[in-house]
Structure formats: C-alpha cells, structure tokens
Design brief:
Shape: elongated
Protein name: tRNA modification GTPase
Helix content: 10-25%
Radius of gyration: 29 Å
Number of domains: 2
Number of helices: 5
Order of helices and strands: HEEEEEEEEEEEEHHHEHEEEEEEEEEEE
Distance between the termini: 32 Å
Organism: Chryseobacterium mucoviscidosis
Keywords: Signal
Strand content: over 45%
Largest sheet: 11 strands, antiparallel
Length: 404
Amino acid sequence: MKKIFLFAGLISAAFFNAQIKFEKGYFVNNSGQRSEVLIKNLDWKSNPTEFEYKTDESSAETKKESIKNIQEFGVDNEQKYIRKSVMIDLSSDQLQEMSYEKKPNFTEKTVFLKYIIDGKADLFYYEHDDLERFFFSVNDSEVKQLVYKPYYIESSSIGYNEEYKKQILDNLKCGIDLTEINRLNYKSKDLTKIFLKYNECSDGSAVNYDKNYEKRDLFNLTVRPGINFSSFEMTNDYYPTNENSKFGNKVSFRIGVEAEFILPFNKNKWALFAEPTYQYYKTEKESTIYQGQPFEAKSIRSVDYKSIEIPLGVRHYFFLNDKSKIFINAAYIIDIEMKSNIRYDYSTLKISSGNNFAFGVGYNYNNKFQVEFRTSTNRNLMQNYLNWTSKYQTSSVIFGYTLF
C-alpha cells in the first residue's frame, strides 16, 4: 500500500508541470489593445476572474491578468470571455435555500461572461458554485439575464418563473414559433439551438463555441482483464491459543468491464468510473489439529471465494502529450460474494464479505490501451462471525482495451 502511495506521489510530482498547457489566445485590455499570447487553458468550470499567460513558447516567465484590467480574452478559437457589468439573479435553486419570492433577486456584478453563441443574437453563460445563469444580447444591445427561477408556492409545492421564454419570444422574432418556445428548457443545448436558428434566419452568421464541447467523448467503455495477487488469513479469538491460519499468496485471473464518465471541465482531467469485476481466490492447506495431544490429527483447510466486485471511483489524468497520459485513481469497492465458503477443520463457514478501498496508478495510450497497477485495503470475509476475524488483500495488474 505504501509503495502505491509513494509511486502515485512521484508520478503526480513528475508530471504536474507536463499537463499545464499554454495555448494560443489573446486578450484585450481596458485601452482596447489586443495582445496575442499563450494562455494557460484551465477549461474553467466556474467563470474565471483572472488567467495566466506567457508572451511566447520560449518565455519562462508567467504573467497574470485579472478582470480589473481585461475586457475580453479567448483561447484557441475554443473559448471566449467578455467582461460585462450585469444584473444577475442570485436566488438559490437548492431546495433547502429556495425562496417564496417569484421575482428574481437581482444584484449588479462585473463578471467574465462566457460566449456560447456569438452572432447577431449573442448567448452567454455564467456559472459560480451552484449558480448557473444565461444571458443574451441582440444587435449589441445591453446584456440581460434570461430569467428562470424556481420558488416555493407552499412548503411542498414549487413554482417556476419562466420569464426567459417571453424574453426570447419578444426579442428573437425570426424563424422561431411559439411551440418551440413552450418546449424550451433552461439548458445550454436547448438555448443554443434557438439562438442558432434565429441567427441563421436573420443574417446566417454565428460562431457556436458550444460545439467544441458537444464533440467531446465523455463516455468510455473498457474491457479490463488482469491478474490478481491475493492473500488470506483468518484468526479465531475464542481459543486461548489465538490460532491463526495463513493461506498465503495465490495468483488468479480477473475480468471486468469499466464504464468511465469524463467530467466536462478542466480539460477532461477528471473522471468517475464503475467497474463490475469477477474475481476469485481458491486454495487449501494441510494443518495439524490438537497438536501434541493423543487425538492429534491432520486436517485440510480450504477457501473457495468468488465474488463480483463493483469499484466506484474517481480518476485524475496527467497528460504527457496528445496520445499518452498517466492516471491515478481511488475507489470504494462494493463486494458481492457468490456461494463462497471456508472449510476449517470440521466446520464449513459461509463467507460474508465486507467492502474496502482500492488505489491505483496507470498509463493510457491513445485512449485505447491501458495498464494499471492497483492495490486494495484489507477486506473482512467473515464479518458475520463474532469470534473470527480475517484479512483478504489483493494487488492487481490490469490491462484495458477501450471499445468506445
């Protein structure tokens, strides 16, 4: 376990700088001067208030600019932000904090708004913590929020202020009908379609910054066979001798299928995964019971343990280049045993396994092939027995082939 943690720490330190990527971009300062630079692209989840940049690839110096001095910046034709002072509704959408007031709670704030659609009709996005808001502007008019607000009518009943539908109907008067508006959700995908349709109808030109995110591959299904190196020991605390049985290390095969969900921010560096896996451990040993007594005898002790493990975990990637990346992950393993038992002298004990944790480090090539070294904490296979304690521990070498 300590070796895995040490290895993961060294990997993290070694490759941390390798994944900090400065990409072609620009910014416009308060004087209107445009500078072509390399911007550190963090693929911001929440709208930023500052950013780091370098003047060129050879520069060792990293500089920083903030919303105070910058009125616009963009990264590699992929993201574009503009500074605006807007009236923004700060009402919470969370049930425990939702108000009984239908009207929005507007507060003036100066923020970087993220472009979704840049055209005759602009669509912007703002996110901070749990707050998500959309804004719009037509023909360079004042930027206003598209209003959507859930609120309590009674303690058990929720109403929705959907003023955004009326705002769109009043301001986007080309190519959009009432039926579309009535079906319109306060979501990026829905609003993007409406604004693109309007821009196409009105003058035919618009830049869709959201298309870069729509093209992202955010789900992977991977077949993951591997080899387990497992050990097991059990102790009966009832007897004064505190008898201990160690069954030693066994090598076995495991096979799993992993579903990985890439989180759509921070340049695809974070992911959640679930990996149902079949594994087994089968062994036996000869022991001497009642040693030194007249009725001393030989006994065969055996373990036949099969289960479906379901690791639920989080993974972080360290990008080396466009095709190679290192990853570390941690998972909570839910174990479902399958007709498993232990024959101990003249008794048959039914295995009842507990859950445990696993930690791993691995390498992924071309989003297709991978290898991972994983170790797990001890798992108790006899949690239903008061007098027995046990330790089942596994380290694994896992190979992966991504189907899609």
